[in-house]
Amino acid sequence: MSSRQDDERTSPESLLDRIRSLRALDIEVASRAALAAVVPLVVLIAIGHIEWAPYASFGAMTALYGRSEPYRIRARTVTVAAVALVASIALGIATALASPSLIVLAAGLIVVIVAGILLSATAGLFPPTPIFFVFAYTVCAQVPTRAADVGLLLAVAAASAAFAWLLTMSGWAVRRVVGERSADWFKGLPRRGVVNPVAYRDAEVWRTIAQNVVGVLIAGALATLVGIGHSYWAVVSVVAVLPPPGARHSTSRAWHRIIGTLLGVVVTGLILLPAPPLAVLIVVIGIGQFGAEILVGRHYGAALLFITPLALTVSRLASPVPVSTLLFDRAVETALGGGIAILIVLFARARADRRERGAAGMPA
Q: Does pTM surpass 0.70?
């Protein structure tokens, strides 16, 4: 290789171009999310209580909010998200303590969906759906819990959320140190979360709430009726697919969810079936969170190749069941929830088309 080629490879301009290309992949956000997920789990392993992994993991989801927001706005949105996540975990724990019937579980789920969508629309949260609140509630509600452990479990969730909050805000201090060079090293912060105190008056918000409530109740009921374990995955799949208020209804996300999950189940099987040690599972969670954050805004189906191993590995830590059962439940219930979401999306699109034709004076 010529010396000129060597100079081009190591020149400041070439390195800067590479840095900018990496910046575009949201390395900063993905790194924070991975650390937020892994560090609390490492602490739990060190103190011998890995069974508390679900509470730490859901608290850590605080790091998934505030993406690309200026820090003044991010402080508000991430705080709101942290409080909402811990509240969802607390409601799940309370439901678990009550030895819940299906009616109690469903009532709690409706509360989380209504409050989550209203809160997201009011506080301008991004992601703008209640998926993480629903996931936290449904899992924690079905983990056997002792009353004597409630304080500790909530402390684990709150501590994990606080650590994720600090990580999410840490870029402010780093940017201050770097100064003018921060534009070359870090992703820009263009997003402005808009507070809407009258979101509860928006018909679109209530239409979205209705779609989510109907979808999760049908999905949960069918999953329970046919006796599939981990019925919350069908519920979460519905919430993951349905769009936030005002967004276009599309079936593509549902198909991405189903196909991406099925492929992700294959990947997870290759990881979990050999029964790897605990340290490997923690690494898988870190890589899964990192890859999910890199890809989720670009291709949802590809992101699920990381999201699925992440979710199943956390489930494995929380409730050790045969891996084959875990994989089967995830695949079947995702297909069930995704299918129900597709039907709701098609129904919503048909109604929207009729409204548009009616407004234009055309026959319905």
A: yes
